[in-house]
Specification:
This protein is an alpha/beta fold and 416 residues long. The chain contains 19 helices and 13 strands. The protein has two domains: 221 residues, Glycogen Phosphorylase B (Rossmann fold, 3-Layer(aba) Sandwich); 184 residues, Rossmann fold. Strand 12, helix 16 and strand 13 form a beta-alpha-beta unit. The two termini are 14 Å apart.
Length: 416
Amino acid sequence: MAKSLYICYFGVNEPLVQTQVIPYLHELVRDGHEISLVTFEGKTEELWNDQLGAIKRSLAEKGIDWHWLKYHKRFSALATAYDIVRGAFFVRRMIGRKKLDILHGRVHVPTLMGALGRKLSRRKPKLLFDIRGFFPEEYTDAGIWPENGWLYRSAKRVERWLLKEANGFVVLTEKARQILFPGSDSTGVDQFGRPVQVIPCCVDLERFQQHGKAERSDMREQLGTVGRLVVAYIGSFGGWYLTDEMIELFAAAREYRPDSFALILTQRGTEKISQRLQKRGFLESDFLVRAVPPGEIADYLAASDIAISFIKACYSKLSSSPTKIAEYLAAGLPVIANGGVGDVDDLIIGNKVGTIVEDFSKGSYIKALREVEALGDVRNRCREVSIKEFDLSMVGGTRYRFIYSNLLHEQNGKVP
């Protein structure tokens, strides 16, 4: 089995790491792989030292050997360059100390650390480029970098080099696979015979599917939504997430069904979102905006009827797999979404688990609500689709295990 180092340019307590890194690594550990994890932490050492032991013990119980490096933020581009150099030397040391077989980089910056660390080492472990998204295009689409500016051009040069250096690849969507590795959907490999896997953002389905009719009734009683149409949204607002459009859909739902109730679970800006709803005529009894721990999200979704996901559609988002959609389906909720985001259109329409809005207008919103209502009770179908497409163990774990096995067989000169 492999000795692997997973390189992540986020902090270990970030929700993304807790839901989209550690669970996958635990799946690999269960298959017998020896996993080390390095993260980059932004806390001051005085505050951080109090937590180090507890975090390290918790991860060790999952079979993960955790290390961390300091994250630098000031003077953004220079700070990242400094972190890349430090990360590369850390990788080189780990290659020698652990006799690593695989370097697993989560997106571009960590993969660059892995590629440079391997260049500096005599031992040459396989490099797995877990691409996740179109990183350079995300920064230009978001307006952070000027289109075709020097930062974008530099990032694209690095990306081309990493695509040449890596021994295997993971992407989140079939659309990203078609763009980067055409033909690999039928062969499983790129033109040079390197393995390519599509692994969407998966979830632990047990957290969502253990809720039955009794739990749903109890939560609806608590929320005061018995007999009402509950339209839910979980996640951030602003940036990629279309705040105005989602507020307008909630308002359209209220016009379509005067008894509708807006349920919004978000970690930031709860007061601002409440004010926006009130300005659109919502009474306090018509909505709930709340920050809840991740472990409680399933309880609230169990009380809902429909869920929404509006994300800015642009080139970079063709590589995106919204975790919230996997969570909605796991909770048995049909989804109203916009098109042009990853594989969302095909997923929702192809499986008849929701609908795609034609545009961001009141008429389209009401039409979408009617279309979802016309589907009837699709809770079981939504859950079945979530099992087929997003199960943490059967989809995420299986595909990561497969690509690790493929890389090891290649390393040992065997045909997978």
